[in-house]
Amino acid sequence: MIVLGSTSEVAQAFVEKALEEGEKFEKIYLFTSSKETTERFARHIDVKFLQQSEVIELDLLKEVDYAQFENINSHMLFCAIGYLGEGTEEGLYDHKNTEKIIDINYSKLVPVMNYFARKFESRRSGTIIGLSSVAGDRGRQSNFIYGSAKAAFTAYLSGLRNYLFDKKVHVLTVKPGFMATKMTQGLPLNPKLTATPAQAAACIYKAYKKQKNVAYVLPVWGIIMVIIRNIPEFIFKKLKL
Q: InterPro entries from the xrefs (predicted)?
């Protein structure tokens, strides 16, 4: 199993869920921009599940050395890489903030995804799971830079799913709504619309087993986003969302 963004609480919860359900992995490759944090998780799954893993440094803001990935093979890829960035007005007009949001959520991530997708295609099997966001369903003034990057990532996953379908590779797009994670710590989130990492992992694992194409972590978000997507633009542009 390949995990991109393995410091993510959702990614770690999914790894544990898969192991608890009896999934067998010769090795789990934990890609991370924080080796120390990820090595603690690697020790945890070794002790709890006797699961062998390897921690690999991956910083999308630096040049990626693809040669180090050459011997990595797996039947599952779980991508939880994401960066919310600064959503204030100051953040909106901070070009460094904008570049970082777009780079991490899309432009620097897609080439890495493609590298491994090609391996899946050549083997003609496997599952790719990508965490996008409900923010990508429609641009809203509160987070439209992040939302636009996630919209691009959602479109990428959709196209990848279409391309890999007849190569026997399944691509699952996951759209979490509010998540109780480090990335959202301190934000005023509605608890009825917020999922824990464990809840998200259970939902994602179920969607994976059912070979779903798109899954909202909490079903209510599917309803919410249908409503938001269908608000006429002449009304929508006046709303404070």
A: NAD(P)-bd_dom_sf, SDR_fam
Q: How far apart are CA 18 and CA 207, in angstroms?
A: 12
Checking DSSP bridges between strand 178-179 and strand 2-4, what pairing results, if any? unpaired
- CB neighbours (10 Å) of residue 27? 14
Work out how many domains the chain is built from and give that number.
1
User: Does position 203 have pLDDT exceeding 70, yes or no?
Assistant: yes
Spell out the SS3 assignment of 86-108: CCCHHHHCCHHHHHHHHHHHHHC
Q: How many CA atoms lie within 13 A of 165 on its CB side?
A: 9
What domain range includes position 207? 2-237
C-alpha distances (whole Å) from 82 to each of 7, 46, 47, 73, 140 are 11, 26, 28, 23, 18
* Token pair listed for 178: 């509010």
Across the range 208-234, mean pLDDT stands at 95
CA dist 109 → 58, 115, 151, 152, 217 (Å): 10, 10, 14, 11, 22
The CATH number for 55's domain is 3.40.50.720
The alpha carbon dihedral of 226, 229, 233, 235 has a sign of positive
